[in-house]
Specification:
Strand order of the largest sheet: 1-2-4-3-5-10
Helix content: 40-55%
Oligomer: single chain
Bound molecules: zinc ion
Number of strands: 10
Shape: globular
Number of helices: 14
Mean pLDDT: 92
Low-confidence stretches: 1-26
Order of helices and strands: HHHHEEEHEHEEHEEHEHHHEHHH
């Protein structure tokens, strides 16, 4: 605690006591009356002192972050300019690691047998607060930071999920929490987890399985978004799998009877999966692409592959539907006289909300406030909004708003490997308006806004909210106990974590 700035009122009370010139008897009672009143004031001041002190510390740490906004903006921009796909994020990971180690973190790279995964740590002992940082890009969404469609490289990768901002803001938060701990002699540990390949590669699952997070008392994360929100909400559990069929090639016109079509097997499997849609629980999502379907129409395809996702708010339901999908693949292979192999590429749990931590996060997000545009940014936003499909209603002013607090285990639309983390340690996250209101993730509009000042402003809202939330958890020891109790209640008795990816190693080549 910083004691240098004692409130002025303390010295005023003391001088008021002794300056009274009253007869002895009166002075005695007067003195005691004063004493009681002063005691009350003193108690109020003792009670308020930590509030003043925390307020001063918050103000100082937030203005430091403001002063470094361009530095962290440049860091994000460097990652944005060189978008790297899952498990191939060599430069992005190194940039974040270097920023952390230059600031005083001890960085361990290549954890969980993943070259681009890292853990950066400052401090020692409990509590341990983790902040997660992502940095992988998406294929095919290359885009310049302009308000109309213009790829930098046609068909190239782009940061359409804003993970360049995610990484940079989490690093900014980690460093500012460390600065605050140093200045105020705070006990405990802050860690930044560099978590690769969120987009389908499940980096966090392997980091969790390697035991890297088990002593964490609270794990913080955030995600770029088109709005500012910090609620206790969930996501969908997901298993993604590549089904591979091996047949026999032959001339499709001269000797079709000698061929065994792997593409037929893919089509038969997908037909059965599409029939299954009628007989799965509500809220199930199944989608696929055919990644290999043969080379030429006049050659019976000897190899074909389809890539399936199955999602539901409950990981157990996902596992059951996945087992039925495997049966469909086996049936397809049997009927087409082909051979089938499958590889689970990724499997993630649904996000388990933690209301205890989310309320703290929401309070801090409200304190920081949303994103206010300059006239140029407003113009950019208006132009982006014009490119939305008909019916999407949005206004640049929405970026200033904070969504109301919501508690829900419904699942939302997407999946994240944060899900596994949230079943293991108390976890909390937020979204900030790094994209123009109304923008969907994985679009060129997201890449565009994420590469200019709107992205930087939204990212700093996240860095500040994460910082204040970590400070709150460090200074209120009861919070971690309550958060853990909530986690245990939500998980239910007898829960034991089993990764949905099974025993496989991280699919380091899934984007190659
Ligand atoms: Zn994404
Ligand atoms: Zn994402």
């Amino acid at each position: 605690m910083n004691c240098r700035k004692l409130p002025k009122v303390f010295s005023e009370i003391d001088s008021a006591h002794w300056s009274q010139k009253l007869p002895i008897q009166e002075n005695y009672f007067y003195f005691h009356a004063i004493k009681i009143r002063s005691m009350k004031k003193l108690l109020v001041l003792i009670f308020l002192f930590p509030v003043f002190s925390v307020f001063a510390q918050e103000k100082e740490i937030l203005s430091k972050l403001d002063a470094k906004a361009d530095f962290y903006g440049d860091l994000a921009r460097q990652i944005w300019s060189n978008p790297e796909l899952g498990y191939l994020e060599k430069n992005s990971s190194q940039l974040l690691q270097k920023t952390l180690s230059d600031a005083g973190f001890k960085v361990t790279a290549g954890v969980a047998n993943i070259p681009t995964a890292f853990v950066a740590e400052y401090g020692s002992g409990k509590p341990v607060i983790g902040i997660m940082a992502e940095f992988d890009a998406l294929p095919g969404v290359s885009q310049e930071a302009v308000s109309f469609r213009k790829p930098v490289v046609v068909g190239g990768a782009g940061h359409a999920c804003g993970h360049h901002l995610f990484g940079a803001a989490s690093v900014a938060a980690g460093i500012s929490v460390m600065d605050w701990m140093k200045a105020n002699k705070i006990k405990g540990t802050v860690r930044v987890y560099g978590t690769p390949a969120e987009e389908g590669g499940g980096g966090k699952v392997y980091m969790a399985r390697a035991g890297l997070i088990q002593d964490v008392d609270a794990m913080l994360h955030w995600h770029p978004s088109s709005q500012n929100a910090a609620g206790a909400t969930s996501s969908l559990a997901n298993i993604s799998t590549k089904f591979r069929f091996y047949g026999e090639a032959s001339h499709a016109a001269a000797a079709p009877e000698r061929g065994k079509s792997a593409l037929d097997a893919v089509e038969a499997m997908n037909f059965m999966v599409n029939l299954m849609r009628e007989h799965v629980p509500m809220q199930t999502r199944m989608h696929y692409v055919i990644t290999r379907g043969g080379e030429a129409p006049n050659v019976v395809p000897a190899f074909a592959e389809s890539y399936h996702y199955v999602r539901h708010p409950d990981a157990l339901v996902v596992q059951q539907i996945f087992d039925r999908m495997v049966k469909a693949a086996e049936g397809a292979a049997l009927g087409t006289q082909t051979r089938m192999e499958y590889e689970v590429i990724n499997g993630v749990y649904n996000l388990l909300p933690n209301e205890t931590l989310a309320r703290i996060m929401h309070k801090n997000l409200e304190k920081i406030g949303g994103v206010t545009y300059s006239p140029e940014e407003k113009k950019f936003a208006e132009e982006i909004i014009k490119t939305y499909p008909e019916g999407v209603k949005a206004s640049p002013e929405d970026a200033t708003k904070i969504a109301p607090f919501v508690v829900s285990e419904e699942g939302g639309g997407g999946s994240t490997d944060v899900g596994d983390i949230s079943w293991l340690v108390p976890t909390v996250g937020l979204g900030t308006a790094t994209w123009v209101p109304g923008t969907s993730a994985h679009t060129w509009q997201a890449v565009a806004a994420g590469g200019m000042s709107i992205g930087q402003k939204g990212m700093m809202v996240a860095a500040k909210t994460l910082t204040l939330t970590a400070m709150d958890i460090f200074t209120n020891p009861a919070v971690t106990g309550q958060a853990l109790q909530e986690l245990n209640t939500r998980r239910g008795e007898g829960f034991s974590y089993k990764a949905l990816v099974g025993n496989r190693e991280a699919p380091l080549d899934y984007r190659k």
